[in-house]
Every structure is written in structure tokens, then in C-alpha cells.
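S.,

Sequence below, as promised.
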Amino acid sequence: MPKIPNSYKIEDCTKYVIYGSLLGDGSITKSKNMTNYRFSIAHSEKNYDYIEWKKSIINIPSSIWADKKRNLVQLQTRSCIELTELRNHFYKDGKKIFPRNVNLDDVLSPLSLAIWYMDDGCYSKRECIFTSEFISDEDILKIQKYLFERYKIETSIWSNNRIRVKKSSEDIFFELISEYVNQVPSMVYKISTKYVPLG
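The prediction came back faster than expected:
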């Protein structure tokens, strides 16, 4: 029986999906009998297309299954050395943190931002908001600074460390992420209709 590899060359797009998911609902965990860690994420059954889309991008072998009791679908990759190394950047004392030693151009790439927003963002009453409760005040300021310097996106902070994209920057933000959001029909409600193709 061929040996299952425990190391994979992770492509950039895979990293961006994982980074964005870790800023949102994703996690890197392992069972007691495992040496290395794996990436996993769960979404509502109504977002099955979103899970499938993520799986289509990730180049680490993975599987999807339904949790009928909780009306969820879950994606889980195989465990590998690279994910174990990545966990060291995104976790401290067993809790998720904003990574300190990963290039911000990768962590906050357009695809990563799109994933983070689809995972944990909302467009309610024409307000575009990211949930970021586990991120420290210091790192929130770092994110704000990067978004403005890199993309000219201005933001403000709401309660519970939520990041709000200012009205003057919404068009810039939606232009940045809409090509990805429009690939996931169940998520297009999170962007302005003028960025959703007709038909």
C-alpha cells in the first residue's frame, strides 16, 4: 500500500484561502494520534457551493462531508508538515491570533480579504463590516494601516473590534474582491448589486 505523503508544496492560492479562512471561521487542529495538523472549516448547508469552491482552490488533498444534525458542511484537509508550521504563526497558547511573521501582502491579499469577508463579513444597511473579535487592538491598527497604504481602503473600528469599510472606500473594496465573490452564488448578497453581473 503506497505511503500517504505528509508534506505538500502549498501553492499561493491555497495559502490565501487558508489565511483568509483563519481570519474568519477556519482552524488548524489535530487529533491526539496525529503528528501534524490539518486545516478545517465549516459553513451552513446553504453555502455548500462556497465549501466546494474553497476545495477547488486548495491543492492539499481534502474532503467534504455534511453534519446533518447541525445543518453544516465541513471541509477538512489531510494533515501535513506545512500546516503544522503555519499553525505556529496563527496560534498562541492554543488560541488564534493575527500572524506576526507572515507577509501582509499574503495574509491580506485580495483573495484572502475576499475569503475573510465571505466568512465573517456582512453588508447590512449598506454598511460593509468585518468581524475580527480575536484580533488585538494593535493588530487591528496594523490591518487598517495596511489596507489604506496598499489599497487606499479607509476603515473605522466599531464595537468588538469590528472593522467597517468607510463609504468612501466601498467601491474600491468591492472592486478588489468581487471577482472572487461572484464565483460563489450563495455569497453575492454580501456585495453591492452593481458589482454582481446581470443574469
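The beta strands are 27-29, 38-44, 62-67, 72-77, 91-92, 95-96, 121-124, 127-130, 155-157, 163-165.

Coffee later?
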